[in-house]
Amino acid sequence: MEWKWYLWFIRMAVMLLVLERCSWCTTDACLEHERIALLHLKPFFNYGNQLQSWVEVKGSDCCKWERVECNTTTRRLIQLSLNSTIWLYNMEYDMDNRNLNAWYLNASMFLPFEELKRLYLSGNAMGGNLENEGFQLLSRLNNLETLDLSWNSLKNSILFHMRNLSSLKTLRLRRNQLKGRLDHIQGLNNLTNLKYLDLSDNNIESISNQGLSNLTNLKKLDLRWNQIESFQSFKDLSDNELKDLVIHQGII
Ligand SMILES: *[C@@H]1O[C@H](CO)[C@@H](O)[C@H](O)[C@H]1NC(C)=O
Ligand SMILES: *[C@@H]1O[C@H](CO)[C@@H](O)[C@H](O)[C@H]1NC(C)=O
Ligand SMILES: *[C@@H]1O[C@H](CO)[C@@H](O)[C@H](O)[C@H]1NC(C)=O
Ligand SMILES: *[C@@H]1O[C@H](CO)[C@@H](O)[C@H](O)[C@H]1NC(C)=O
Ligand SMILES: *[C@@H]1O[C@H](CO)[C@@H](O)[C@H](O)[C@H]1NC(C)=O
Ligand SMILES: *[C@@H]1O[C@H](CO)[C@@H](O)[C@H](O)[C@H]1NC(C)=O
After folding, report:
1. How far apart are CA 116 and CA 142, in angstroms?
2. Which tens digit of pLDDT belongs to each residue from 18-57?
3. Which ligand 3 atom is the nearest neighbour of the CA of 132?
4. Could you tell me the residue ranges of all domains in the chain?
5. Cβ atoms of 66 and 105 closer than 8 Å
6. Which residues does ligand 6 sit against, CB inside 6 Å?
7. Where on the phi/psi map is residue 249: left (φ > 0), alpha (ψ -120 to 50), or beta?
8. The dihedral sign for the CA sequence 180, 181, 184, 185
9. Which of ligand 6's atoms lies nearest the C-alpha of 190?
10. Number of CB atoms found within 10 A of residue 154's CB
11. Is 39 in the pocket of ligand 3 (CB under 6 A)?
12. What SUPFAM superfamilies would the database entry show (predicted)?
């Protein structure tokens, strides 16, 4: 009798072990190479120790990690919310309002997430990207529809790096260091699927008509809190789909 109980106990223990294991190793978990890619990103976006669920445990389901969202069928990442990981007022600025804490992103680190649709990178004190590892590489993510780069320290050159991201529908560059006359923003003009473009809270003085003439699907262009001198250059945009052109606080 005692033996029977003993065997029963061992059987249960083994079964539990198997079950527990399977919660780590079933097809429900995220893809291993996406999990590893997230761990490579972690040190760059973990200032306030927000990414505690991103653990280096083999088989851990990264779809359950905070700030990550997966497609429930394919178990691949579709959204990554690495926004507001650094808060900008901790930053030091020099006389030219350059952010002394700015750092440079390696955009290649996002390439494993082939099904990514939404990437939020606002509030990270990024000054730009590493040479040869620029944002234009994100054009390989064919499903990428939303890119939020607001509240960083990005300069005009960022617009050039946007030129191949033709799947984008929403691009947010609010509160960066864009400035002056953006007469040659051919980069943006290539984003023919763009519906929403947020350039507010920069120091833009003007944008040439040609610079946005290709954006026939644009529904909303936000230019509040800039130094726009004249509305002339936006006259022809009304021939587009554009419904909302927001300059200053009002809508014209
Ligand atoms: C998830 O992936 C499947 C297969 O590719 C696709 O049909 C579905 O629309 C996706 N769902 C979401 C929410 O992206
Ligand atoms: C990050 O952005 C997403 C999408 O806009 C938002 O829902 C979320 O609250 C943001 N997280 C933080 C910490 O700001
Ligand atoms: C950028 O990231 C990729 C992928 O992780 C890596 O192979 C490459 O060496 C990195 N480049 C630099 C300059 O750090
Ligand atoms: C951008 O597109 C052009 C033309 O299709 C191509 O030659 C170039 O390699 C692309 N750049 C990147 C970084 O994908
Ligand atoms: C408009 O977009 C197309 C690609 O879709 C590009 O070939 C062309 O150069 C763009 N026009 C301008 C003025 O940038
Ligand atoms: C605009 O995009 C098209 C294809 O998506 C590409 O052939 C062209 O080189 C791009 N233009 C610029 C200025 O990068």
Report:
1. 8
2. 665 544 445 578 999 999 999 999 999 998 888 999 999 9
3. 13
4. 2-251
5. no
6. 163-164, 166, 186, 190
7. alpha
8. positive
9. 1
10. 24
11. no
12. L domain-like
